[in-house]
Amino acid sequence: MSVFAVQILLRTEAAHPHTEAKQRTLLTFFVEVDRTQMTIARVAQKLHAYVGYHEYAPQAAKGQRGPRRHAGMAAWRYRYPAFPRLLLILTGASEDRLARRISYLRSLAASDPALASTPLRVGVTTLDQLRSHGPFEPVFTPVLGRAEFSNVWLRPVGVAS
Question: In sequence order, what are the residues at sequence separation of 6 or more whose Cβ sits closer than 8 angstroms to the Cβ of residue 90?
């Protein structure tokens, strides 16, 4: 599985045509591409790395000089104004097999107490669905919570972003 961060500068009226204010929104995502080369349990374990990054706050080393105002602040806050959503893109198998992987991943995540209480927003889809419909259509299934299709905002369709 490969990971990379993606930032999209989006004009608000393009994402929300009903909005009168013309604003720009910066969307930041972690994108993991799963080519079905590892077990779904290993993919679920990777979610723990994101939980760890979300919670990690470096401590000032003993004897370290310099400003301490950032000691104890979450490390991700140095790079992002909000923690990026995680998008899992599955490819490399039939649609049926990818659908089963999504189901298994959701089951593993739901039974994991560390993931059940995390504020992370994680969505999963297939590369074919993403190519066919685009990220602003309801092609993502949340890994955590209810299995209602969502768009890249990772909120149920019809909920304001």
Answer: 34, 36, 98, 101, 102, 124, 125, 126, 127
